[in-house]
Amino acid sequence: MGESGVKSALVDGNLLIAKALVRGGIDRMFGVVGIPVTSLANRAVALGIRFIAFHNEQSAGYAASAYGYLTGRPGILLTVSGPGCVHGLAGLSNAAANAWPMVMISGSCDQKDVGRGDFQELDQIAAVKPFVKFSVKAKNINEIPNSVFSVLDHAGSGRPGGCYLDIPSDVLHQTITESEANKLLDEAENSRKTDPIKKVAKEEIDKAISLIRKAERPLIVFGKGAAIARAEDELKNLVEKTGIPFLPTPMGKGLLPDTHDLAATAARSLAIGECDVAVVIGARLNWLLHFGEPPKWSKDVKFILIDIDEEEIDLRKPYLGLIGDAKRILQVLNKEIKDDPFCLGRTHPWIESITNKVKENVSKMEVQLSKVVVPFDFLTPMRIIRDKIASLGSPAPILVSEGANTMDVGRSVLVQMEPRTRLDAGTWGTMGVGLGYCIAAAIASPDRLVVAVEGDSGFGFSAMEVETLVRYDLPVVVIVFNNGGVYGGDRRCPNEITGPYKDDPAPTSFVPGAAYHVLIEAFGGKGYLVGTPEELKSALDESFSARKPAVINVTIDPYAGSESGRMEHKN
């Protein structure tokens, strides 16, 4: 009781976490509620955090990871204990693989009952260990503010990634006075530390510029690390001042327009096979870039790696490594180049060879795209979708893509014109990200339409989240390329169809002609079934104009495409 006889307000663990999140700049949260975190979600909403409730923690986790990428601030996933935490590991691992800032907050069992077989008991700190940069359990309500700020700061510092906060149910129910809560929050907030800005030594910058200047066939490669650093203006400056061709990784597409005169995507094999100096910015020399090794790359190529993570530089052992934020390093490079400019002209032999190969390959692709194939192959509907998206202008839709053939063909056909407008299976090749990514994109960028182009297998992982689209009335159009299964239904050789269960559907087969468009109609969304160019164009016109939740079920020839897309050699 206070001096006036009025009872002091009490703050429980749920409310204290919500208050700390708000102070940490969090205004969005994704998750699935239940024991013991329902009150936490409600407290967060009451304080102005928008909570997006999913059917499945896996999809919610993918949403949180993508939201972190799109906004540059940690995406927050809230899960229940035990199985909920385990389901959420999909999102945490995805954030780790893609280097996106994310925090998973999970309730856990009462501390006094650990080891006794309590409801949904699990050592969750141990479970998350392989997938996080940092994890912490708040063992007392007084530890909550520091714990919240710690996971937020670790998630976004250095190379971004996933972090985990464990909140036992007994801590959620502990209480302190409001004045005590505010004091704890103030102290924790004031003790937060920011990473010191790493400065690259001038001699290293000079060495990089000298190497680039002397190169006969230089190439600039950039990835989603440059995207999350918001380095698009600096990249544009570097490319256009030096005249060096560039190659984006799949999610680097759009940092500079795919239609840029110096874009080398359509001449990828030539560009990476013959360049003598490659400046790699915010991209890892992993499987997506053939590990930077022959035969795809020249054995004599000199790599300049710009990466925020010193461990990445140590792992790849480039000719020169520049450690730091991509945006800041490019600013320094551009300033030094401006003081002593150089530029490859359009008549430079390297630029001419890249330009000619791009024109040749684009011309070949356009010949294929000009053909109208019905029943649909992958190219005909993809060209119609490309043209419709292009007609929208700016702000460009955010494109979400997953599936083997669907994603691979889409990467070649669909055009990205603006930064951070492409989300796909990413570094880990994760299938099932589609609807989670769609929801994250719609929440992060409410001014943009979101268009998902998905295979039917990829869609199936998270299809129930179309109800979430409808519930929140999100401007998302999901286009499902329906070819009857994984890669395209039954592709077995006759000698593989044997044994006691030979009459079962093939492991790659789904129900033929599945009515995916009807699923969203069950919840009040709009569904379309299309099989001709005219039907697809009509559905795109109507759904894009309406900016309402919709599913367009596109019937594809089951024998179009190939097994495993472009990775058949691994299957």
Automatic annotation (TrEMBL):
Residues covered by the Thiamine pyrophosphate enzyme N-terminal TPP-binding domain: 16-126
Gene Ontology molecular function: any one: thiamine pyrophosphate binding
Domain Thiamine pyrophosphate enzyme central as annotated: residue spans: 205-333
Coiled coil: none
A Pfam family of this chain: TPP_enzyme_N
Database matches in PROSITE patterns: TPP_ENZYMES
Keyword Magnesium: yes
Cofactors named for this entry: Mg(2+); thiamine diphosphate
Keyword Lyase on entry: yes
UniProt-listed GO biological process terms: fatty acid alpha-oxidation
Catalysed reactions, semicolon-separated: an (R)-2-hydroxy-long-chain-fatty acyl-CoA = a long-chain fatty aldehyde + formyl-CoA; a 2-hydroxy-3-methyl fatty acyl-CoA = a 2-methyl-branched fatty aldehyde + formyl-CoA
Highest taxon of the lineage: Eukaryota
One GO term describing the cellular component: peroxisome
Protein task: Catalyzes a carbon-carbon cleavage reaction; cleaves a 2-hydroxy-3-methylacyl-CoA into formyl-CoA and a 2-methyl-branched fatty aldehyde.
Name of the protein in question: 2-hydroxyacyl-CoA lyase
Organism from which the protein derives: Lactuca virosa
